[in-house]
Automatic annotation (TrEMBL):
Cleavable signal peptide: none
Protein name: Reverse transcriptase/retrotransposon-derived protein RNase H-like domain-containing protein
Database matches in InterPro entries: DNA/RNA_pol_sf, Rev_trsase/Diguanyl_cyclase, RNaseH_sf, RT_RNaseH_2, Viral_Replic_Matur_Polypro
GO terms, molecular function: nucleic acid binding
Domain Reverse transcriptase/retrotransposon-derived protein RNase H-like per the UniProt entry, residue ranges: 163-257
Regions crossing the membrane: none
Organism phylogeny: Eukaryota, Sar, Stramenopiles, Oomycota, Peronosporomycetes
Length: 411
């Protein structure tokens, strides 16, 4: 029907969408009821607004005139400032975050890190600096404030100092976040990768007026199995992460990658890898990458770098004060179980297994008598529709039953 003469339709009246709804009037999606309209000229923005109002009238939607703003060069949108120059972080509680004291509980620390995580794309090497804060546990906060043993107190004081340093650095970085330029499809994308012992980061930048300006920052802490990787392997992880995060921006483009190690270029050009190197090489094979090695003279190699991109050597120096101490998991010392010569005990052992193809499992239990380790009783059973965990659990229950028979119902 003619849209100009069509009756308004309730957007919730029909559950089935139109077969051919036509293109979006703005050419993109909006976040719930926060609609942002951008244009190069006044005439263009008026045309887009008119098309949007027509769509709202058709679907019986209303727009508040009081909450609408027109013709601004810079607007606040979802905690950001958006302009032709780029994207700026604009947290509503920035002043309170800057004055925030070091959290005294794990929940308060998690709340702080959650607030910063929303703006992590603006904070270069966010995960690198936040790594020691992510490692803190409730027991660490207790030991920091109530350490009883001198050796543990000294260790806690050192961790406290490193954590406070990282906390203050992150607050300062949030207050001085750079303007992220809008991605320009006509300019070559450049990726700067960085890795250290416990975290990786990467920055997508583009050249404007002879300077590299950031488009987005990505970073994350390393998993336990990744801590032993070589530095080149970690840089590959950083490269893979930013390629995944910025896939829609970078796909089918020629990308320049700046690395501190020439081995990264060798990885892309060599063949016949096994294990994780083979998987990484396969993932990177779909990209058109130009690897360039950068050393301490990074500024000379890259040309003029924007002040918002920290030279890698300075990052290494700054991280000395906040490096998290990687320790093995603490173990609780337990006294070994002992049995007297004249003492008689009953011990139960149990097990269970399941076969997925057969959708069935078996479980068994044995009751032993100590100290001679003689078998008192044993039993096994079979059941359908069991998982491995369920089979082992039934083996435990079967062991309890056998013990109960031997002890007259008391365990």
């Amino acid at each position: 029907p003619d849209r100009d003469h069509a009756e308004p339709t309730d957007v919730f009246e029909k559950w089935k969408p139109e077969a051919n709804p036509g293109p979006s009037v703005l050419g993109r999606r909006s976040y719930i009821d926060d609609i942002l309209i951008i244009a190069d000229t006044w005439d263009s923005i008026c045309e887009k607004v008119e098309a949007l109002l027509d769509a709202c009238e058709r679907w019986n939607l209303s727009i508040s005139v009081v909450k609408s703003f027109w013709g601004h060069q810079k607007v606040e949108y979802l905690g950001h400032r958006v302009s032709a120059d780029g994207l700026e972080a604009n947290p509503k509680d920035l002043e309170s975050l800057e004055k925030l004291p070091f959290p005294k509980t794990l929940r308060s620390m998690q709340s702080f890190l959650g607030s910063l995580n929303y703006y992590s794309r603006f904070i270069e090497d966010f995960a690198v600096y936040a790594a020691i804060l992510y490692e803190l546990r409730e027991v660490d906060f207790y030991e920091m404030h109530h350490g009883k043993h001198e050796d543990r107190a000294a260790e806690s004081d050192d961790r406290w100092t490193r954590a406070r340093t990282a906390f203050d650095l992150l607050k300062a970085k949030l207050a001085t976040t750079p303007i992220l330029r809008h991605f320009d499809s006509d300019r070559q994308p450049v990726i700067v990768v960085y890795a250290n012992k416990w975290a990786i980061s990467a920055a997508l930048v583009q050249e404007h007026d002879g300077m590299y300006w950031p488009v987005i920052f990505t970073s994350r802490t390393l998993k336990s199995n990744e801590l032993n990787y070589g530095i080149v392997d970690k840089e590959v992880l950083a490269l893979l992460r930013i390629l995944d995060v910025c896939y829609t921006l970078l796909t089918n483009r020629s990308i320049k990658v700046l690395s501190r190690y020439s081995t990264l270029a060798w990885l892309l050009n060599a063949s016949g890898f096994q294990g994780r190197l083979g998987r990484w090489a396969a993932l990177l094979s779909e990209w058109t990458l130009e690897i360039r090695k950068c050393l301490k003279g990074e500024d000379d190699i890259l040309g003029a770098i924007a002040a918002s991109i920290t030279p890698r050597a300075e990052v290494d120096e700054a991280l000395i004060a906040i490096a998290p101490v990687k320790e093995p998991k603490r173990t609780i010392a337990m006294a070994p179980l002992t049995v007297e010569l004249d003492e008689e005990l009953l011990v139960v052992s149990f097990d269970g297994s399941a076969r997925v193809k057969r959708s069935a499992g078996a479980y068994s239990a044995i009751v032993w008598k100590l100290p001679e380790w003689s078998i008192i009783s044993a039993a096994s059973e079979f059941a359908d529709d069991l998982t491995v965990n369920e089979a082992e659990y039934r083996g435990l229950l079967l062991g309890f039953k056998l013990l109960s028979d031997q002890t007259g119902g008391e365990l």
